[in-house]
Every structure is written in structure tokens, then in C-alpha cells.
Amino acid sequence: MSYTVPPHYQGLWRRTLLTAPGLRDDTTLVLWMQTAQWHADLRIPADRPPCEGRRSVHDCSHDELLGLLRQEGFAGITQVQGDTCEWLRQLDYHPSGRRDLGCMAFASTLDAIDEYGVEADYAERWEREPASDQTGWVARSRSAEGPVLWLRSGRRFMLIRPRAMDATQSRELWASLATGRATVEELRRLADFEISYGVIAEDDGRILHSTLPWRERQTIALPEAWAFD
């Protein structure tokens, strides 16, 4: 069965506030791009290590890798029923196995959303980006590191290139990290997951934010063919 997300959801959103018991976060960079079916989400803490001079995860120190692994992000299909939105995470930086459901309250102008957790206790405030476009596209390509999913909203894009392992393997390595047993090589394997956001200029893309800091400010080739979504 195919699902189409209502038009007022579609476009590019920035989270401005997260509150939960004992937590208030208004500094993490969080971007959510939504097409008619697909979503992509990128979350970079304000104190993430800059990794200056690094060119890959293999150049990063143990502490830098731990800092990178505090990032989050995911992509997949979105389903909306009434005021409940569910993000079916097919590609997940830090897979938990839990469902991701929010109760969505739109502002009358449709340019802001208050999201309340359905199966978790949290609230998030989302605001539509000025560069947002409710016309979305999707594309797929392949890099030397593996398959890449692309989403596009107007002149903005997001690309998702997952790590070379399945969700079960990822969860096993995350469990090793949580208990302090992960090796540096395992940390590198976990950190090798790219979610990048950027702007389209002419026929190329310029990365503005990425889970791989050395990718930021790079100019990259875009897919030759986009499918309207």
C-alpha cells in the first residue's frame, strides 16, 4: 500500500526546541525534509567535534569518533493518519527498534508544528524553513561506499548513505559502545554513515551540514535523474 503525506507536511523544517523530562534543547541542529512519501532527518549537537584536518573516519581519534556518534539521523517512509504522524525508519544512524510516532498540531498558518510524543514523553517545535518547497523529488545513486538515497525540496537536498551493515549488526555495535567494549575500528564502522544537507547551485550541490564534518563546504555532483515524489 502506498501513502501520500498531506501537502502541508511537505517541505523543509527546522526544529527550534525539544523538551522532555529533565531536558531542554534549543542548540542541536535538526533538519527534517519531507516529500510526498519520503523523509530525511539530520541531528547534529552544537558541541560536536569539528574534526579539523580530517578526511575520513580513519583519520579521527577515539574521542572524535565518540563525539561523532552522538549525532542522529534517519530516513524512510512517512505515514499520516489524522493528527498522528509515523516515521518508518528504513535507514537509521542509531537504530533503537522503537516506533517513532508524534501527535502533530499545526499552526493556523501551517508554517509551524508542535509535535508531542505518542509512545514517549517529549515535545518538539518545528518551523518551516524560508527555503522550503512543497514540491519534492527522490533519487537513488551509488557511490564508492555504497548506495545513496537523495531527497530534494526546491533548491535544497539531503543525501543518505548508510553504513555497510544491517540494522542488527548496527545495534550489536551500539550495544558494545554502550558497555565500553567497542574497539576503535568498530567506532569507525559506526561513524561511517553519511547524512548531508545542502543547497543546489547551477548543476551541482554544496554541502552545508553533514554527519561527516569534512564533507561540509564540499561541492558534489547531483543525480542525473530525479523522480517526482
Word description of this protein:
- By secondary structure, this protein is mainly β.
- The protein has a single domain, classed as Lipocalin (Beta Barrel), CATH 2.40.128.280.
- The chain is built from 3 helices and 16 strands.
- It has an 8-stranded antiparallel barrel with strand order 1-3-4-5-6-7-8-9. A 7-stranded antiparallel β-sheet has the order 15-14-13-12-11-10-16, with no helix packed on it.
- A hairpin with a 2-residue loop joins strand 11 and strand 12.
- The two termini are 15 Å apart.
Please sum up the structure shown.
The chain has helices spanning 62-68, 167-178, 184-191; strands at 11-20, 23-25, 29-34, 38-44, 72-81, 84-92, 101-106, 112-117, 123-128, 136-143, 146-153, 156-161, 194-201, 204-210, 219-221, 227-228. It has 229 residues and is mainly β.
List the helices and strands and how they pair.
Elements: E1 11-20, E2 23-25, E3 29-34, E4 38-44, H1 62-68, E5 72-81, E6 84-92, E7 101-106, E8 112-117, E9 123-128, E10 136-143, E11 146-153, E12 156-161, H2 167-178, H3 184-191, E13 194-201, E14 204-210, E15 219-221, E16 227-228
Antiparallel strand pairs: 1-2, 1-3, 1-9, 3-4, 4-5, 5-6, 6-7, 7-8, 8-9, 10-11, 10-16, 11-12, 12-13, 13-14, 14-15
Helix pairs in contact: 1-3
